[in-house]
Amino acid sequence: MKPINSQSQPNANVKGVNHTLHLYTSKVNKYSIQRAFLAFIGKDEKVVYVTTDDPASLIQEFSPMNVELEIIKPEEIKDLENEKNCKLRVIIDAGSTPNQEHAGIEEREHYINELSKRHSINCLCTYDVTKLNPETIKQLATHHNHLQLTTSDLTLLSGDLIDKSKLSDKSIEKMVKDNLEAIILALLQKKPMCGTEIIGNIHLEFNVLLSPGTIYPLLQSLKDKGLLNIEQNGKAKVYVPAKNAEPKIRSIIDEHIQIRKLLNQYLQQELIIKEVT
User: Fold this and answer.
1) How far is CA 65 from the centre of its chain?
2) CATH class of 172-276
3) CA nearest neighbour of 6 among 131, 156, 161
4) Which of 172, 236, 272, 274 is paired with 54 by a 20 to 30 Å CA distance?
5) Which of 128, 112, 98, 153 is nearest to 11 (CA)?
């Protein structure tokens, strides 16, 4: 599938809420997107999942993360008003709703933004882009302060975080992918992680959301090279540096650092020469 590029821009004026719109195509596993969003749940956060899907199937999907979900139907969303003593992390699985009526979408998204004025909330709204018309997508963007689009082979991002950077989102994504082996090894030096946690860490640090199809083959490759082992942590499989592999891992990370320094010195020198001449 060729990447789809959205021309809609998120509304930078939506404040007081981390309200992310994630559009995905039909071949994308929406649960991988949602699991990444749940990778960094705070101890004081309550997770609410809004969907029309069968609750039993959801529990199965998220059980490896040991996350306690409160599953509600779309018509129950206004009950969130009663949650006074905790922070909310909300997933709105809008792609599960067969009838994507514009009026219903507008009411729901407006309610989340109004609720954020009175309540601490971190909300991810996932929509199957193939079920939406262009006008609805454009309207949705005005209600969110982050916009992400995932196809089967690419994630595109835009939003406040990227707009504040002098780097383009394509440059950041390319940098992450070019150095992904070193980034993963550096993360796992700090603590063991499952694949979803790695995806979530990279997303948090760089605002780049990688697909499981990118992460897991690389993790397997690092395991085959003798750099990583897999351990069981409850129901989840976590990746840890292999015994006696730490010197090799540090060497790989250090090599990346030295190469970057060499490149930076060369580019800075050339820039100075150009300015002088």
Assistant:
1) 15
2) mainly alpha
3) 156
4) 236
5) 112
